[in-house]
Amino acid sequence: MKLFVFIMGLLFGSFFNVIILRVPRKESIIWPRSHCPHCQTTLKWYELIPVLSFIFLKGKCRYCGYRISWQYPLVEVMTGLIYLLLYYHFGLTMVFLIYIILISLLIISSVIDIREKIIPNVITFPGMVTGLISSIILKHIGFWNSLLGILIPGIFLFIIALIFKGGLGMGDVKLVAMIGAFTGVRWALMALFTGAFLGAITGIILIVSGVLDRKKPVPFGPFISIGGLVSILWGYEIWIYIINLY
């Protein structure tokens, strides 16, 4: 089962790459079939095998020699590993499947944010609705906790975005609200503060090392997403540790 979960993650990760490229361009994620972005040649099924096709093709299109981005295998492997982590933590349960949906949306949103500096509404709004519906059906967090998970962290970050203009976007607000729809208030706030901490540390390191211009904003979405993953997997343990400090 572990191998099956990992392989499913690789396959879904391959499809996520299609979504990541096409959604910002407002293109269909179903048609046309996958093709080389340079020469537009439609790819055969064996050229779409996650990770292996990248290795066998030596990172280049076999038709025109155009270099294939490392994004493809990285997203595929990352998705497989995170799916496996969720499986280890929750087992084959409905909660596992619900968090698979959330993590998938976070992976897609994060990579789009890195590439395009946007987090599309077409990802976050359906995600919020899905989180609310799952809270009613599964009752793993309760409807009101899900609803407040949207409102409280979302409004909090919205106020922060208004105060510190330019540092945050409305996409970040909707992203943390989407996390709250799936996890509830407590873990969404933990995701937000964890993401803020990781983002600040990373920003300082990049600026001090000269890799990043001080005036150039760092996409916050990926850090919120990492915070979401941390809160899902280890939120309870972190919460208990914080309480015991006092």
From TrEMBL:
A biological-process GO annotation: signal peptide processing
Main localization, broad class: membrane
Domain Prepilin peptidase A24 N-terminal: 7-90
Location(s), subcellular: Cell membrane
Residue ranges crossing the lipid bilayer per the database entry: 6-23, 70-88, 94-112, 119-137, 143-164, 185-208, 220-243
GO cellular component: plasma membrane
EC numbers, comma separated: 3.4.23.43
Ranges in a coiled coil: none
Keyword terms: Cell membrane, Hydrolase, Membrane, Transmembrane, Transmembrane helix
Domain Prepilin type IV endopeptidase peptidase residue range list: 100-204
Xref: Pfam families: A24_N_bact, Peptidase_A24
Membrane topology note: Multi-pass membrane protein
Gene Ontology molecular function: any one: aspartic-type endopeptidase activity
EC category: hydrolase
Family, similarity comment: Belongs to the peptidase A24 family.
Record-given protein name: Prepilin peptidase
Organism from which the protein derives: Halothermothrix orenii (strain H 168 / OCM 544 / DSM 9562)
